[in-house]
Amino acid sequence: NFYKTADDMDKAVLGVYSRYQSRMPRDWTLLEMPTDHLYMSSYRHIGGLEAINNLDFQPQNDIIRNFWQSTYNGIARANTVLTYLDVPDDYIGTRKEQLEAEAKFMRALFYFDLVRVFGGVPKVTGILSIDESRETPRAPAEEIYALIIADLTDAIQKLPGQEAMARGRATKGAAVALLGKVYIYMEDWENAYRYLEQADEFHYRLLDDFASLWKVANEDNDEVIFAMKYIENENGHLLSSDFIPYFGVEGVASSGLEVALLAWGLHKEYDPADTRKAATVAEYWKAPGSAGPEEWRPYVKKFAVPHSGRTSSGLDLPVLRYADILLLKAEALYHLNRPAEALAELNKVRARAFGNTSHNYTLADIASPEDFLDKLLLERQLELAFENQRWFDLVRTGRFMEELDQVEWSYNKATETPQVVDLDPRPHFKYFPIPQHEIDQASPGVLTQNEGY
Amino acid sequence: VFLIPCRAWTQALPSVEGLVTERATQAALPGAAVTLKGSGRGVTTDAEGRFKLSDVPANAVLVISYVGYQTTEVPVAGQSNLQIRLDAVVEALDEMVVVGYGSVKKSSVTSAISKIENTILDQMPAGRPESALVGRMAGVNITQERSSPGAAPTITIRGPGSISASNDPLIVIDGFPGGSFNNINMNDVESIEVLKDASSAAIYGSRGAGGVIIITTKKGKQGKSRLNFNSYAGIAVPMVHGPENWAAGGQDFYDYTVRYINRDFAWTGGDPSLPLWGDDRRPAQYRVNPVIAEGNHNWEDILLNPEPIQNYSLSLSGGGKESDYYISGTFRDERGTIMNTGYRQYALRANVNLEISPRFRAGFMISPNYSERQTYPGGLQNLVKMPPFLSPEKQEDGSYLRPLDYWGSTVSSGVNPLATLEGTHNHTNAFNNVGEVYGELDLADGLAIRSSFGFNISYATTDNFQESRATNLNRPTGNAADSRVYNLINENVLSYSRDFNEVHNFTGILGASYQYNTSRASALAAEPGSFANEIIPTLNNAIISPGGSYTSKSQWGLTSYFARINYGYNEKYLLSASIRTDGSSRFGPETRWGYFPSASAAWRISREDFFKPVRFINELKLRASYGVVGNFNIGDFQYLGTIGDALYSPGGQLIQGQAQASIGNPALKWERTQSYDIGMELGLFNNRVSLVADHYNKLTKDLLYNVSIPAISGFTNAIVNVGDIRNKGFELELTTRNLIRDFKWGTSVNFSINKNEVTNLGGGVDQVINTHSRGMAWILREGQPMFSYYGYRQAGVIQTEEELGRVPVMAGQFPGTVRYDDVNGDGAITPEDRVMLGSFMPDIVMGMVNDLSWKNFDLSIAIQSSLGAKMYNLENLYYQGPTVSAFLLPVVEGQWWSEQEPGDGQHPATSLAALEYVGNSDYYLEDASFLAVRNINLGFTFPVPVVEKLRLSHLRLYLSVSNAFLLKSKGFNGYNPEGYTDNGIDGINSMPGLNNGAEPVSRIFALGLNANF
Prior knowledge:
The structure holds two protein chains of two kinds.
Chain A: H1 6-23, H2 28-31, E1 38-40, H3 49-53, H4 62-84, H5 95-118, H6 130-135, H7 141-158, H8 172-185, H9 189-198, E2 224-228, H10 239-242, E3 260-262, H11 264-267, H12 275-280, E4 281-285, E5 295-300, E6 317-321, H13 322-335, H14 339-354, H15 369-384, H16 390-396, H17 400-403, E7 406-412, E8 417-422, H18 436-441
Antiparallel strand pairs in A: 1-3, 2-6, 4-5, 7-8
Helix pairs in contact in A: 1-4, 1-5, 4-5, 5-7, 5-8, 7-8, 8-9, 8-13, 9-13, 13-14, 13-15
Chain B: H1 3-10, E1 12-22, E2 33-36, E3 42-44, E4 50-57, E5 61-65, E6 72-75, E7 81-86, H2 91-94, E8 96-99, E9 102-105, E10 113-117, H3 129-133, E11 140-143, E12 154-157, E13 170-173, E14 176-177, E15 189-195, H4 198-201, E16 212-217, E17 223-238, H5 251-267, H6 299-303, E18 307-319, E19 323-335, E20 342-357, E21 360-375, H7 381-384, H8 403-407, H9 417-422, E22 424-444, E23 447-466, E24 477-500, E25 504-525, E26 550-569, E27 573-584, E28 593-604, E29 617-631, E30 643-648, E31 655-660, E32 671-684, E33 689-701, E34 704-708, E35 717-721, E36 724-740, E37 743-760, E38 767-771, E39 777-781, E40 788-791, E41 794-797, H10 801-806, E42 818-820, E43 835-836, E44 844-854, E45 857-867, E46 870-873, H11 889-892, E47 925-927, E48 930-941, H12 944-949, E49 954-968, E50 994-995, E51 1002-1012
Parallel strand pairs in B: 1-7, 13-16, 46-50
Antiparallel strand pairs in B: 1-4, 2-3, 2-5, 5-6, 8-9, 10-15, 11-12, 13-14, 15-16, 17-18, 17-51, 18-19, 19-20, 20-21, 21-22, 22-23, 23-24, 24-25, 25-26, 26-27, 27-28, 28-29, 29-32, 30-31, 32-33, 33-36, 34-35, 36-37, 37-44, 38-39, 39-40, 40-43, 41-42, 44-45, 45-48, 46-47, 48-49, 49-51
């Protein structure tokens, strides 16, 4: 007897966002942990994390299973909204279309995550009974992409702009930008460019100061296209704690979780003149209240806003931001054989990072297509580190085999020696295994495992 | 003709002699009283059992009485030498046993019921009533998991059969179903009956699956008023590991720490020969500050201390022809062995019965009870693990030093445990009142109706406040919660009892019961750190957190009808059958009603004529029963899909969105347990030896269980009725009276063995695995005990780099980590190599109670033993030093330190960096078998002349020692082999058998006094 009024439907739509919002802060355990950005510390244990750190992907891994489960829960919430949408008769104006489009936008976002992580997955667009859920097999990845495109196309039609929507809810601009990004993953460069270019119509811009992106006071800025909203201690997240030292950071928190630490492999790539370095990386540390000198102990600083101890932080987490869109646009342009324009987009991001154009690339820096991709991926690393892009970037460009074969974790400053670790990436790692638990829940033979597992 | 002998008998005999013997053994009975009926004259028998009385009328009657034997009257009938044989009192058979809605003679019982009478159980410092029952009944396993004052033990009767719907027995207090041992003081208890099989529990229908415990409180007895005072006071001494088991502070501690840190450093490729301090080439986290070699404080010793306990109770009871009463008051105070913990209880009880007319009786019972409990912030390991360099000294400003104050970094930022304990104020206050009013009317000969109105009213408030100095975050926190529960019941029972032709005994009941429960709870929490100051700990001094605040309401109702008939033929053939039907609001309209039938029969072979020649067997009864009981202990309204809050904050405004929280299942119905029981009761040598043996087979079907479902449905589980669990077992209770003269010695031994097995999980699933973040899993697998441990088997320790390359490993392993057993031999360690590793459930549970007395002294010794259970002793890792903490030697010695110092090959490295490879194997599984002397009670009853001089009627002084002796398995490293900190079996994600910081049990020495006025 819920879903009776327009207000009920609005609450149900917020329920859809709520699922993404609660899942996102730990997405890094699946999407950053296996990359060359992080290595696991020993202080906080998350079941299955060590295996992912070691590129030991097992179908029994809890992190993979949790990702699957919470993502499908979000899809079910969206499907519930879409199923009951016609029940209330007290919608005013275009509210019904707006709620429908929000649900579709979020469903597309959830499926986009699933198809990138697992490949083809069961396509669920309605409310399933338990029996039906046991009999639903995986759909090919193309079908999932088709659903995403259909949902986003519809959402673009029906969503209002940012001015009519509260921050943290989907907007027309967000749907356009997301659709452009989806086409990048499909390597449909034409369409990707079309939508990424169209995103410029929504007045997004790069902030002058990269560091100001990561301040609670400045969360609702023009660079953010779509973000998950958090309030400290109310519906906050642990991400601010996950990367900071166990014994705390003065002015940030009296203790941290220190689940994972900054890997030297990424750390060493930052140019000292790059303002993103100071905003992303802290190199020296001392315990709060400790009299001792600062020690070399690098950690990820990007999300380290002041918060209550290990408890929740209120920093919003961007899902889509303009710098990402610019770099994707650069990629599309390059593939469309427009290298000068591609470099121009890339350089916008670089110029913001260095505060001037002195570090911009020129066509002379690009000797081969590989060079462009090297530079682009490096830029994405430096710009979007710990924003859950690296794993997908490595997979879609086919580079994870070479990049992750040998990684550098900690770094001894006095002896100038990194800890070099050999890993064993396999080609089938482009997709994570389908959780064994889910295969077991389905009727025998219905849910197939990915190749190689 | 008839007159002549009569006249002859009226003449007096000069003397009458005689010998008094026990009939069964022909043994002489010295000290028996022989009195001449009606005259007051009498003698006692001498050491040979002989007596002599002079001047006895020929028609006199002698009355011979002797403790423990039936008082016998013997007509002299002109004889001058009498051979008198006394029968031992067969009390055990004549006593009444309380069953649901009535009582029956023990000899007529047709099902498996254990009974405990409160003789001196209230005279041992047990704290809670359950503790006094430990080890006394077969098939009733009482485990004291937490040793903090007021903490309730877990009672499991004949093994657990439910995954999600609780295995707790139904507790019936004076007829009120749904009470708790919290509501009861042992002083007020007359007897406790445990209905173990389904046929006896079936009269409680939908709530009998976990067995039924019936508590009967004391009633007044006719005669002059009696005032009873019972008190004990003593000291509880925590049974700790002791300083010899800890690495001493100073150089020992420093050396262990260096080994730890160098091992970690070497794994990252560092050079352990670098100076430990003051060298930049050694990264900060691998340096060892020499300051930690100073100080030698044993935190176990600092934190756990002997504390006093005391108990006072006073009762007044009595009765006249038309009324009886029992009124009591109790005060109990136990201080916890951990600072700032304790339990206090104030309780009153009044039981009053009135005979208003010869055909109408009425009465009431109330038992208001108030308790205060103070707890510490859980997980004892977090406090005890403090390193020895940390000082317990209070600083001048009232603060305590933290480890960080010594080292500056690389050491826990945790606060001093003394600051935590002093600065934490967690209080729970509870008020509870179980009561009843009844009227009983005789309608016709043998036919009566009893109507009652009962209630159980509970209020509880919890106030928690932590000062900033008590928390690692250095911020004050607080929350408060209130709850109230009203549980009302009306019961109407028509009962009929009649003997026909002296051999047909027929009793029957017919009843209806209506129960309604309504509850309300509310909670408030402060925003962390929002207290304006720390002087006022109440929440008006803080900002209230919307996310932590709520109120909730719930209710359930149960309507029941039941009937039972008992038929006995000549007390030889006994039959009983019952049926109950319950309708519960917790299930959907279609499945609301459940039917719970039972039948049982018994044959007392010893009453057959053909058996009479077998003199040494005085009782032999065979019985068999079958019954069905239910379980409805799921949350209210679960058959409906529920909508829950889903917070989001668009535009920075917190809004409670909504989302479906569970899938509805209108077909949800009772869990049903069908059980068979075959039993034998045997009494030998006038019941000097009595034996009760039972075999049972209990199958719980239609488990109310939260099964996993495909997540693409949007949900990961749904509560459904699917799956079966079987408990099969054997129980034995053997009671002997070994010595019965001046020196008396009785022994009762019980033995139970239970085999638990998941027989069917349903839904096409044959196993469900639940994995702890440290790697151990609990599995439900068909054919195995429920929630068995499931993980890798340790086959040693990888000693060298060379071995690492040679043996199957998991990704990321390094020398010093566990060498796993590659069970499937595929050359790699994968989840397929996990195996069954045992269960938290014991195979065998035994108890033995010895009661001895000699003259005015008595001694009672209760022993309990449990064999075969395994504990996942995760707390070990806190004592292995990974965060610069105290080293518990048995779990540290023998470790692998380096290739040159490989340890004993069984103890892997346990640094933080290596824990991934420790917790997932059987390395932390420890044998939790134990043998405990739970209580020794030595009493002295003052002789009658002394007592009379003091104007008392009875005076007993006693010395009692609880947990006098605890023998643990060799390899067991926890404090308490029953110290499980998980909530037992409580849904699909249960991790029973996990220990993470259970407190040590206390050895309690107490001196007590029991006096009757």
